[in-house]
Write a structure and sequence with these properties.
By secondary structure, the protein is α+β, with helices and mostly antiparallel strands. The protein folds into 6 domains: 59 residues, Helix hairpin bin (Helix Hairpins), CATH 1.10.287.610; 232 residues, DNA ligase/mRNA capping enzyme (D-amino Acid Aminotransferase, Chain A, domain 1, 2-Layer Sandwich); 81 residues, OB fold (Dihydrolipoamide Acetyltransferase, E2P), CATH 2.40.50; 71 residues, 5' to 3' exonuclease, C-terminal subdomain (DNA polymerase, domain 1, Orthogonal Bundle), CATH 1.10.150; 87 residues, DNA polymerase, domain 1 (Orthogonal Bundle), CATH 1.10.150; 78 residues, Rossmann fold (3-Layer(aba) Sandwich), CATH 3.40.50.10190. Helices cover 36% and strands 20% of the residues. It contains 24 helices and 26 strands. Helix 22 links the parallel strand 23 and strand 24. Helix 16 crosses helix 17. The longest helix has 24 residues. It is globular and about 90 Å long.
């Protein structure tokens, strides 16, 4: 009879052997045994663990699959920010990157440098951070906002190219006791196509691209679903590391690869000059379509860690790295006509209406032409055959005209002399190529401002879409943002395709928006040049709207990331009496801005923070109103309708149509017990 001690010894040997073969297969791409032999080892491991569940340890290969379904995602604070990269789009911008580096170093008295670089493919996937303690994987999280991510540990453990335990070197030099490895989870092209084929056969909507498929797979509440998705991982850097120092980026990458965290060593190159770096970027671009995975650029990093530290970081990106973006996907189509749009700041923008064409998996029927100067420079005419391009979420633009396709019927275009919406005079400020409507009450500006005010990142009034706002304005039911808070159900029922239930939901969403935060409110005002990030920067500095409104230009310029253009725009906005009156009306309508948290409180985030919830069915242990209050107290938001913006659906007894819609949209679903468990755990 086999003794417990012998099986315990065999189990330890099996785990080590399987991990070794995982390393050979996933890290080195050089397997030593066949799939059948590997499967036999794995089955033997499962047999012993089934007989002796008390011997199962978290780092066992068997624990990659079958982890319990989680009730939601906790938040994880990154010990060091996961910053974005500055982008470059040409050889000239890469050379400017090097010149900027030399200037920064010279300013610190660091001269006569021979700067070497590391160039690596820029994976088009999901950035994650893996935390290992005593060589064991303890926590995995998404990049999130760069400072706080979501805990996806259970899901990441199902990805076989991510080691559950780091390996010692052959000379038994152990990995550090604590290390944060950063990298990209991605899906290969063939696996992506197969997954979409399977989803279509199951009447499920296909993923738009491999990156979305990877992100959607990692953020599943059920790790079993993630386990069935063919995900892969490449490491590209480190966060915090204890007990180890590196003198070069190249040494750092080769070392973590030896510890078992997969690095894309095949295409990473150390370059002695910027010319070599440019050449390798161009080489990667030339082979991008032949690779098994998607890359959208190449990352150039200063190799010396000492120089990296000397160069430091800007607010959102390191100064020692540049993402060289490849030429985006392009397509050829025809301009049917050119219209002029008037935005919320009064800016007139010519827009080309196109024969619909697919670009990078998206059907495109419009493209921005920027301004008259751009139209003349490219000689764009109505009726022209053109090449358009789309890069990521950027609005498509016309790259060039194919003059050889002209028939003589094409018509040159000129911007109008007056506002095409209200007929007011146009303003052209010195140094600004953009024409602007001079009338602040121009219907197009008002409409644009209201649509911006209710958008997701501003006041987030769910259900109040563009068509409804258009009708409200056309029927004279609203003239300004503050008028939204005076709407009644009978007002909404006069609109087309408006039922009582939808109207009630919209009114509830408007009411819910009265409780907001300072960054959201500042962003919602539509101050020129003040985007979502800048609104956060200003909120962090001033922490009160009155302080911001009374800030001097000198004071604003002292804020990191605030330059003269933004400072002047903020001063101009709060110097305008009409804007002050508009803000006062909003406060009179019931807008309440929550106090900015203290510095210590800012680090205490609940799992519900920033998340959008909907409820369906009857809750047995508490009322819907109570559930809503509990979520909002934890900085979550509750909506009466469900959409792609919804993060979670809370499921009660006898659920309605929201359940099927949530499943269709792939929204996370929590039953009442899971919801309460999270509340109790996080309280």
């Amino acid at each position: 009879m086999v003794t417990m001690e012998k099986e315990k010894t065999e189990l330890a040997a099996l785990r080590e052997e399987i991990q070794y073969h995982n390393y050979r297969y996933y890290i080195l791409d050089d397997p030593e045994i066949s799939d059948i032999e590997y499967d036999r080892l794995f089955q033997r491991l499962l047999e012993i663990e089934k007989r002796h569940p008390e011997l199962i340890v978290p780092e066992s290969p068997s624990q990659r699959v079958g982890a319990p379904i989680q009730g939601g995602f906790k938040t994880v604070k990154h010990s060091m920010p996961m910053l974005s990269l500055e982008n470059g789009f040409s050889e000239d911008e890469i050379r400017e990157f090097e010149e900027r580096i030399n200037r920064l170093l010279a300013h610190q008295g660091i001269t006569n440098n021979t700067i070497t670089y590391i160039v690596e493919p820029k994976m088009d996937g999901l950035a994650v951070e893996l935390i290992y303690a005593n060589a064991l994987l303890k926590t995995a999280s998404t990049r999130g906002d760069g400072y706080t991510g979501e805990d996806i540990t259970s899901n990441v453990k199902t990805i076989k190219s991510i080691p559950l335990r780091l390996l010692p070197w052959k000379d038994n030099s152990p990995p550090p006791q604590y290390i944060e490895i950063r990298g990209e989870v991605y899906m290969e092209k063939r696996a992506f196509r197969n997954l979409n084929k399977e989803r279509e056969e199951n009447n499920e909507p296909p993923f738009a691209n491999p990156r979305n498929a990877a992100a959607g797979s990692v953020r599943q509440l059920d790790p079993g679903i993630t386990a069935r998705r063919p995900l892969m991982f490449f490491s590209y850097g480190l966060g915090r590391i204890d007990g180890w120092t590196f003198d070069s980026q190249f040494k750092l990458l080769t070392t973590i690869n030896k510890w078992g965290s997969r690095v894309n060593t095949k295409f990473i190159k150390k370059c002695n000059t910027i010319n070599e770096a440019i050449s390798h970027c161009q080489y990667l671009e030339s082979i991008r379509h032949d690779l098994e995975y998607e890359i959208d650029g190449a990352v150039i990093k200063v190799d010396s860690i000492a120089l990296q530290r000397a160069l430091g970081e800007k607010s959102r990106s390191p100064r020692w790295a540049l993402a060289y973006k490849f030429e985006p996907v392009q397509a050829t189509t025809r301009i049917l006509m050119i219209n002029v749009q008037v935005g919320r700041t009064g800016a007139l923008t010519p827009v080309a209406l196109l024969e619909t064409v697919e670009v990078g998996g998206v059907m495109v029927s419009r493209a921005t032409l920027h301004n008259q100067e751009e139209i003349e420079r490219k000689d764009i005419r109505e009726g022209d055959t053109v090449i358009i391009q789309r890069a990521g979420d950027v609005i498509p633009e016309v790259v060039k005209v194919i003059a050889s396709k002209r028939t003589g019927k094409e018509k040159p275009f000129r911007m109008p002399d007056k506002c095409p919406v209200c007929g007011s005079e146009l303003i052209e400020r010195a140094g600004d190529v953009v024409l602007r409507c001079s009338n602040p009450d121009c219907p197009a500006q008002v409409k644009g401002l209201i649509k911006h005010f209710v958008s997701k990142d501003a006041m987030d009034v769910d259900g109040l879409g563009d068509k409804i706002i258009d009708q409200l304005l056309d029927k004279g039911l609203i003239k300004d943002t503050a008028d939204l808070y005076d709407l009644r159900l009978e007002d909404l029922l006069h609109l087309e395709k408006m039922a009582e239930k939808l109207g009630t939901n919209i009114l509830n969403a408007i009411k819910d928006s009265k409780n907001t935060t300072l960054p959201r409110f500042i962003y919602s005002l539509g101050i020129r040049h003040v985007g979502e990030h800048t609104a956060h920067v200003l909120s962090e500095k001033y922490r009160d709207l009155d302080r911001l409104a009374n800030a001097s230009r000198e004071d604003l310029l002292s804020v990191n990331e605030i330059g003269p253009e933004i400072a002047d725009s903020v001063i101009a906005y709060f110097s305008n009496e009409e804007n002050i009156t508009r803000i006062q009306r909003l406060f009179e309508a019931g807008i309440k801005i929550s106090e900015m948290p203290s510095r210590s409180e800012e680090t205490k985030e609940h799992i519900f923070s920033g998340k959008s919830f909907a409820l369906t069915g009857t809750l047995t242990s508490l009322s819907r109103q109570k559930a809503k209050k509990l979520i909002e107290e934890r900085k979550g938001k509750v909506s009466n309708s469900i959409s792609g913006k919804t993060d979670y659906l809370i499921l009660g007894e006898s659920p309605g149509s929201k359940l099927s819609k949530a499943k269709e949209l792939g929204i996370n679903i929590l039953n009442e017990k899971e919801f309460l468990d999270i509340l109790n755990k996080e309280s």
